[in-house]
Every structure is written in structure tokens, then in C-alpha cells.
Write a structure and sequence with these properties.
β10, α7 and β11 (about 190-195) form a beta-alpha-beta unit. The protein has a single domain, classed as Ribonuclease Z/Hydroxyacylglutathione hydrolase-like (Metallo-beta-lactamase, Chain A, 4-Layer Sandwich), CATH 3.60.15.10. It is globular, with a radius of gyration of 18 Å. The termini are close together. Helix content is about 25%, strand content about 30%. It is built from 9 helices and 14 strands. It is an alpha/beta fold and about 260 residues long. The protein binds zinc ion (3 copies). One zinc ion binds near residues 15 and 19.
């Protein structure tokens, strides 16, 4: 399977429109970060999306996502859910309802935000609404998507609960600034850890790059990729300072696992 990073930017994306900082003006494509999202490519025609980011349409076109067979939601912050309406394109081509998975809390926030999909007005006029089903999951209760076994685990993002996912030897832990003990146990013996690291300066809901490095050095996955970076992180400059085995992710990065 391939784990592909569709976006590794923070909630604003990078560059920020109008910002004249060195990273936002940089010509390095690795400093061009769309909103954080990923896809698990199990087969050429079986893809599991993690979150429907604000940039889903652009990411799908840029990174060759031609099917979406299921969506795993980490949490309901805008940068992770607002591309949900763009699932319609896949409904048109696949002619199937797309199952979406998240905790009850995440799904209830999605329902509130996208009320027009889930409580349709009888008088609704217009094109087809997204055809999705909402399927509740619980942390630490593994489930299967065809042959893929998914282990959801709890992360804390300030006071917000976020769902991380372990699939085989890979774990995806975006949007977090603490890892509960029970989840920590699930993050041992990994081949690959994809971990939140917003910037160098402290933040009250995200790990910093130094905190992410400390976690990677304790958990010792074979490889660690950092995601959800802000425009204060220059790819080349930050990469030079990272220890062996820890790298910044970039949009389009493919991780075989
Ligand atoms: Zn986010
Ligand atoms: Zn900037
Ligand atoms: Zn968030």
C-alpha cells in the first residue's frame, strides 16, 4: 500500500494570500502546503481518504485521486471537513454512496455544518447532494475497510478530541499536542509515524517541531514525517536541522508501507 500526503499545511495553507514572508514568497514547491490530508492507496481503484480538506478538489486533481472508497475523519475543524461537498465528483463517477467514519462527536459536528446534506429540505432545488453515509467509530476499536484493518486512537488537540489512525506499521497523528498513555502504547514498533508539528514557537493545540522530534526519539519509529506546518517553517532550512530518520512531509509525498 501507499500512504500519500495530499496536504501538509496548517489551517490557512501555505503560502498565505498577501503574506510577503520568505516562505510564502519561496519558489520551492515543498513550501507550497495545502491543507493537511492524506490518502491510503490500497489498490489502484481502492482509496481511503483521511479527511476532506478545504483543498480536496485541487488535491485530487494534482495527486491523481480518481476514486474515493471511504473517508476517515480525524476531527471536525474546518480545514479537515470543508471539502466534503467535493465528494460529489466521486459520487458522479462511481455511482456509489461513500461511507465516512468518525467518532460520534465528529460526525455530529459534520452534520451540523453540512445540515443541507443530512436534513434535506423537502423543497430543495438544484444538483445532486453529496451521497455519503456516516458511520460512528470508537477509539481503540479496530474495524476493517475491505482488507485494511484500521485502529483508531485518541489524541488531544488542546481540549478537542482528535482521532489518530494506525494502519499496519503506519500511524497518522495530525492535529495534536498530547498523546494519551493508551495511544502511546499503540504507537510503539512503527515503521512510519506521521506526526503534527506546526512550527518552532509554542502553540496551545499543536506540537512544535522540537516536541515532535522528542516524541519520535522516544517512540523510535523507523521513519517520522512531520505535517500541518505553518509558513514559519522553511522546508530546506528546517530539514537541515532534523535528526536522521525525521523529515518534513511535503504535498505529494508517497510513503510505501
Ligand atoms: Zn488542522
Ligand atoms: Zn508567510
Ligand atoms: Zn484541528
Amino acid at each position: 500500500m501507499i500512504f500519500k500526503i495530499l496536504g501538509c499545511g496548517t489551517s490557512t495553507g501555505v503560502p498565505l494570500p498577501g503574506c510577503k514572508c520568505a516562505v510564502c514568497l519561496s519558489k520551492n514547491p515543498k513550501n507550497w502546503r495545502s491543507r493537511t490530508s492524506a490518502v491510503i492507496k490500497a489498490r489502484s481503484d481502492f482509496n481511503v481518504l483521511i479527511d476532506t480538506s478545504t483543498d480536496l478538489r485541487y488535491q485530487s486533481l494534482t495527486h491523481g485521486v480518481e476514486h474515493v472508497n471511504a473517508v476517515l475523519y480525524t476531527h471536525a475543524h474546518a480545514d479537515h471537513i470543508l471539502g466534503l461537498d467535493d465528494l460529489r465528483s466521486f459520487n458522479f463517477t462511481q455511482r456509489q454512496i461513500i461511507p465516512c467514519y468518525g467518532t460520534r462527536k465528529t460526525l455530529s459536528e459534520i452534520k451540523r455544518c453540512f445540515y443541507y446534506i443530512f436534513e434535506p429540505d423537502q423543497e430543495y432545488e438544484g444538483g445532486m447532494l453529496p451521497q455519503v453515509s456516516l458511520n460512528p467509530i470508537e477509539h481503540y476499536r479496530p474495524f476493517n475497510l475491505e482488507a485494511i484493518s484500521v485502529q483508531p486512537f485518541l489524541l488531544m488537540h488542546g481540549r478537542t478530541e482528535v482521532t489518530g489512525f494506525r494502519i499496519g506499521g503506519l500511524a497518522y497523528a495530525t492535529d495534536c499536542n498530547s498523546i494519551p498513555n493508551r495511544s502511546w502504547e499503540l504507537l510503539k514498533n512503527l515503521d512510519c509515524l506521521v506526526l503534527d508539528a506546526l512550527r518552532y514557537e509554542p502553540h496551545n493545540t499543536h506540537f512544535t517541531i522540537d516536541q515532535a522530534i522528542a516524541i519520535a526519539e522516544e517512540l523510535k519509529p523507523a521513519r517520522t514525517y512531520l505535517v500541518h506546518m505553518s509558513h514559519t517553517v522553511d522546508y530546506d532550512e528546517a530539514s537541515r536541522k532534523l535528526p536522521e530518520g525525521i523529515e518534513l512531509a511535503y504535498d505529494g509525498l508517497e510513503i510505501p508501507f
